[in-house]
Request: fold
Amino acid sequence: MSVPVIRTPLPGPKAKALIDRDSTVVSPSYTRGYPLVIERGSGCMVEDVDGNVFLDCAAGIAVNSTGHAHPDVVKAIVEQSGRFLHMSGTDFYYEPQVRLAEELAAVTPIAGGVRSFFGNSGTEAVEACLKLSRYASGRQNIIAFLGGFHGRSMGSLSLTASKAIQRRGFGPLMPGVYHAPFPDCYRCPLGLTTTDCAAECLDFIDHQIFAHLVSPDEVAAIVIEPIQGEGGYVVAPDQFLQRLRALTKEHGILLVADEVQSGMGRSGKMFAIEFSGVEPDMMALAKGIASGLPLGVAVARAGLMAWPPGAHASTFGGNPVSCAAALATIKLLKETLVANAADVGAHMMAGLKSLSDAHPLIGDVRGRGLMIGVELVRNRQTKERATTERDAVVNAAFRRGLLVLGAGKNAVRFSPPLVLTKAQADTAVKIFAEALTEVERAR
Ligand SMILES: Cc1ncc(COP(=O)(O)O)c(C=O)c1O
Reply:
């Protein structure tokens, strides 16, 4: 099935029953935007427990890179599960972990050899980058960006500056973290466009943070998402990343690319930072890397990852089944899916952009590959953020059988599995347009 079919009111009776059970026993901190209860998935389609079929442009928050239950990935998982489920790659050796480290060394845009540290999630990958940055540089301070999301454990949460609710009540966080403005070109404070931009906003780090807050020789690392994910799918211009690299080199600061969301082919290249030609010192990877199995990896220049036995480890990190899934995933990405993300992504971007004329709520359509954000505004001149309208559009899309998620205060993100076809992209754009119309009429 490749088009949505909605058979019951949403949530249907079985979904409702499960949500009622969930509401008394599961942490209320989760942010469910609409009541989807999955029964099974295949490719880009998801069926709920009541038999409703949805087109998935959320992919479990940009995770199911190869689609739901890709047969090659399932086969790799089944084969590895039959051999052994766990041994702990920190204390013993096994081939899938070594092979995955070799594969990552081959695909990451860092020359001269890289090493991989294995954890289970994005936040653990970021924690490993933080610890390694401090350890390798002998410096303590870190610079991150406003609007950035790097995870929710204490170290990564200290970098996260996406929504205040994510930090509220959890302080004090890790000291020594400074935040700079992210280059949001749609809302450029200097009134520049991407064509006349020379990334002047980077001067904030040089002229404000380094001048008033922290000496650059005490900064271990600058951590950046080449495309902000949770912050609203905001693309950092190439010249910004290039100047950032020059600035970090000048001061001996490590550059860490958090590609947890933008990586593994989603941008139309294996890693989004490749568009700028910039070589980071470290990268945090997770989400799409194993098609849905838990895996987070900190990849670093080999010379940097020179910490001694015992310095850092994780019992479950680099689980062999997750490594097998990652190897199957990377094979599919290299064979067809990175190219498909670029091709279908360009098609979908054009389709979404073409909605602007008929839909005044659309302020900006941006992204790379199949990482597309549509920012909704109440007024194109003032760019007033349409947050309630955004939530209403996401819900209206759900009721029509399209799964999308919000990002930032007022953007809708399209992060489908990278197996999306052009026909499915067209269906998604059509349903999205209907959802926009519904919300625009109700205003
Ligand atoms: C860029 C980025 N970094 C880190 C994380 C944290 O990943 P996890 O939720 O797997 O801990 C996320 C999650 O959304 C992310 O988008």
In short: The longest strand covers residues 371-379. DSSP finds eleven helices and 18 strands in the chain.
